[in-house]
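Structure ticket #2291
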Amino acid sequence: MTPLPISGYVLAGGRSSRMGRDKALIELAGKPLIEHAVTKLRRVCTEAHILAGAEGEHAGLAQYAPLVHDLHPGCGPVGGFEAALKQSGFEWNLFLPVDIPFLPSALLDDWVRATLRDASRGARIAMFTVDGLPQGVLALLHREVLPSVVDAVASQRLKVFPVLEDAGRELAAKQGMPLETVFRNVCWGGFPSKEGRPVPRREPWQFITEAQRAAERLWFANLNTPEDLVEAEANVDALDT
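Resolution: structure written out below.
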């Protein structure tokens, strides 16, 4: 299947303080987390990039995809959104944290395609809420979000979910549409079964495996600590990269 005309960005500029070392280069199933993330983005997006924090940081990641550095260092994921949206040549841009290697490529692809189908009806922001917790750093953002992100960075409003919610409200008011039309916050309730619906010429990664279903609790889980990594290593059969 042809990748979509969007740009993808791995959020990899964090300091990994709880892990004690650069998470992006930690190996899982023989590959660094950054490679797992870039592989997923290249399946879905026309281009893949790595948001690597301040200029000069994380230079070792450049072998996996082109680096994009923050315009205003120290602003976290919101600063990464700003740098990416200013750099991108595409209307839509997908942001994927480096530390959620178990998120299935099939889910990512289906979610992005569903959002783009709703773009003509006004969708401009998409994200997930899982177990009541907003997952704002896994986001699909239209470039119309950029002015709100620039304002947020300038005023040092750096909490991701409030920034995206405010951007959604601004765009909804501008378009004269309900917030939920513009801001697609999907409350995760499980991946729907596709059994019995064969699709010709599909790649293996476009199907959810039994191992992935068994490890669904890990799909949106961040690898933050050495203990998280131990659990991840016990579930490598649920990776699709």
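Closing remark: The first strand starts at residue 4 and ends at 11.
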